[in-house]
Amino acid sequence: MRPTAGRWVSGDDFFDREGELRVLESHVRDRNHLVLTGQRRMGKTSIARELGRRLESDGWIFLFADVEGSTCPEDAVATIAKETYRIRPIASRLGRGVKEWFEENIEEVGAHGFRAKIRAGLNAGNWRRLGENLLQECANQDSPVLLVIDELPIFLKRMLRDDGHAKRVDEFLSWLRGAIQTLGDHGPVFIVSGSIGLQPLVHRLGIPDRINHFYPIRLRPWDRATSVDCFNRLADGEGLQVEDGVADAVYSALGLGIPHHVQSFFARIRTFATIRGKGTVTVADVEHVYETGLLGPFGQIDLVHYETRLKDGLDDETFSVAMEILAEAATQGVFTPFARRCLEHQYEPLVNDIRGRVADAIEVLVHDGYIEDGERGYRFPSKLLRDWFAARFRDHHLPLEGRCREEANED
Questions:
Q1: Which of the given ranges, 12-26, 41-55, 85-99, has the highest pLDDT on average?
Q2: Distance in angstroms (rounded) separating the CA atoms of residues 110 and 116
Q3: Which helix (H) or strand (E) covers residue 66, if one does?
Q4: pLDDT value at position 43?
Q5: 306-309 long-range CB contacts below 8 Å, 24 or more apart?
Q6: Distance between CA atoms of 170 and 165, rounded to whole angstroms?
Q7: Which residue from 85, 172, 253, 351 lies 20 to 30 Å from 391 (Cα-Cα)?
Q8: What are phi and psi of 148, to 5 degrees?
Q9: Model confidence over 248-298: pLDDT tens digits?
Q10: Helix, strand or coil, per DSSP, at residue 124
Q11: Cα-atom radius of gyration of the chain, to the nearest Å?
Q12: What Cα–Cα distance (Å) separates residue 213 from each residue in 33, 48, 80, 166, 184?
């Protein structure tokens, strides 16, 4: 088993998740369409690709379309079409259907050229027709088709931000729902996923019924035993000597078994041992690497991702509210009901419908795994994230409850 921090994994590098894979495979074989949810870095892309790899070995056609870079329906349809290039029966028939766009033979243009040609011919008036033809060609195959659309929520949020209203988001989701319903059990099976929650997005837009044909499957964090097993297997695979208790100390430092964080912590410890020339990593080394590696400058890339993804998923005012909630929960240990009232009071003169925005921010933060509801309020389930946000805001966040008391004293 190789260290794989920062990329999706499959085959021999794919660890655990056998239970989730069995559930996913059962639903897919029963032709249920799924939305794969779970907090950041939980391995949604890896499990979707591993499922596709295993189904391909059983005669399925597997298509994986990452639409994160798409800005409009035409981009998304062209990206999905590109994934059919290696499936000649689909690509050739699709190409004949739009042969006026192709000067070269489809066999000669390559996958990127195929996408470019398709995209060049798409516009607001014909993307639905090509998309429907594409899905129909998938349905015409002798083999069943699994189509994964990754980062769908980011694509939808980008359209929402560019347009300023929900019209095109509604149009795309309504088209997709209609196409799926028209093809029925003969069409491809869909899995949609992303690092921004789809359900909170459509709920905020008032169109939750647009995805009611997708059954939600949520990936959970690893427990302590699984996290420890993964770390020890990585150490064995790399020939890294570790004291008894090191893997357990890693889990305790993280506070939550997010697969990417376990992998990242191992990578930092291995680098630390190599640089120091240590023959054996000790339990005492774990805290040092945690403070200087994961929370230090070289760990920032991993953790800044959480803030940028959140910004991608919220409008500017709701993002500011969300950051206030995270700063309070990180520096004070909990975002209490009283702190929530203080936040609403402070922002009321500045933000329209502040109570609605706070509710929206909390829904997204809980759905995406930043915080969870617990005793006395919302807390970080991940010690790593709590410590990172605490370091981020410790020097300039004024506790909400203190602000309210100061304001009351002034009055």
A1: 41-55
A2: 10
A3: strand 61-66
A4: 83
A5: 306/40, 306/370, 306/385, 306/388, 309/40, 309/195, 309/196, 309/368
A6: 10
A7: 351
A8: -100, 125
A9: 999 999 999 999 899 999 999 999 999 999 889 999 999 999 999 898 877
A10: coil
A11: 24
A12: 7, 19, 20, 20, 11
pLDDT at 344 over 60: yes
Q: Could you tell me which of 212, 218, 169 has the C-alpha nearest to residue 32?
A: 212
pLDDT in tens, 99-147: 666 666 666 678 888 888 889 889 999 999 999 999 999 999 999 999 9
Q: Name the token pair of 74.
A: 């035409």
Helices (H), 314-353: 316-332, 337-347
Task: Give the DSSP letter of residue 58.
Answer: T
Instruction: Tell me the two tokens of residue 285.
Output: 């080394």
Structural tokens at position 23: 């559930």
- Which residues lie closer than 8 Å to 66 by C-beta, 6 or more apart? 79, 150, 151
- Distance separating alpha carbons of residues 23 and 258, to the nearest angstrom: 20
CA angle 16, 21, 25 (to 5 degrees): 165
- Token representation of residue 104: 């070269």
Answer for the pair 328, 335: CB distance below 8 angstroms, yes or no.
yes
User: How would you class 194 by CB atoms within 10 Å of its CB: exposed for 0-12, middle for 13-18, buried for 19 or more?
Assistant: buried
Which two structure tokens, joined as six digits, stand for 186? 């003969």
Residue 384 CA to residue 252 CA, distance in Å, equals 10
Distance of alpha carbon 390 from alpha carbon 310, whole angstroms? 17
* pLDDT band of 97, cuts 50, 70, 90: low
Amino acid at 42: M
Confidence class of residue 11 from pLDDT cuts 50, 70 and 90?
low
CA proximity to 213, closest of 21, 22, 26, 27 = 27
DSSP strand pairing (34-37 vs 215-218): parallel
Residues recorded for the chain: 411
Confidence of residue 85 (pLDDT cuts 50, 70, 90): confident
Mapping DSSP onto H, E and C, the string for 18-42 reads HHHHHHHHHHHHCCCCEEEECCCCC
Copy the structure tokens of residue 315: 């409008």
169 or 310: which leads in pLDDT: 169
Please tell me what DSSP assigns to residue 369.
T
**How confident is the model over 155-180, as pLDDT tens digits?**
998 898 887 778 999 999 999 999 99
Alpha-carbon distance of 341 to 359, in angstroms, equals 12
